[in-house]
Design a protein that fits this description.
mainly beta, globular
Length: 154
């Protein structure tokens, strides 16, 4: 039987995310984002990325979209999906990452079109898009589901 606790933590991290308007993209005078070291499970490709979206994106909101607050598993097999928040997203060299409760790390490469897919080492996935205003909108799936947003802050 698979341990669904890590999936639950990931999903909960996105519960507080709600879309908001980000500030305009930063200029060269803005401090660069911290360097990010790739994990073995990072989604995407270092060959199909861009540094155009590099920076720090502040967590804005999350919404738990799991059925009735429960998991996406069939009735009787589920668990309550808790509400969580997430850290900021750091993108450096095209590689993005954020964590939930300093426990579950998501990582992946942003494409030149601003599409961002990140995975964890324990089965959760984030699928999102960076819009022209510097907002990241996306959905986390695993045992639970969340929609979350971040805005560019640096």
């Amino acid at each position: 039987m698979r341990n669904s606790l890590p999936a639950c933590f990931l999903v909960l991290a996105f519960v507080g995310c709600v879309a908001q308007q980000p500030p305009p993209p930063t200029t060269a005078a803005t401090a660069p984002a911290q360097a990010v070291t790739p994990t073995t499970y990072a989604a995407g490709s270092a060959q199909n990325t861009t540094t155009a979206f590099d920076g720090t994106y502040t967590f804005t909101s999350v919404q738990n979209i799991s059925r009735g607050g429960g998991s996406l598993r069939p009735e009787g097999e589920g668990f309550k999906c808790p509400d969580y928040t997430a850290s900021h997203i750091t993108i450096s060299g095209g590689l993005a990452q954020f964590d939930v409760r300093n426990t579950i790390l998501f990582q992946g490469y942003v494409t030149p079109q601003g599409i961002l897919t990140m995975r964890t080492g324990v089965g959760q996935q984030f699928d999102g898009q960076i819009d022209p205003q510097g907002m990241i909108h996306g959905r986390v799936t695993g045992g639970c589901a969340y929609e979350a947003t971040w805005h560019r802050s640096a």
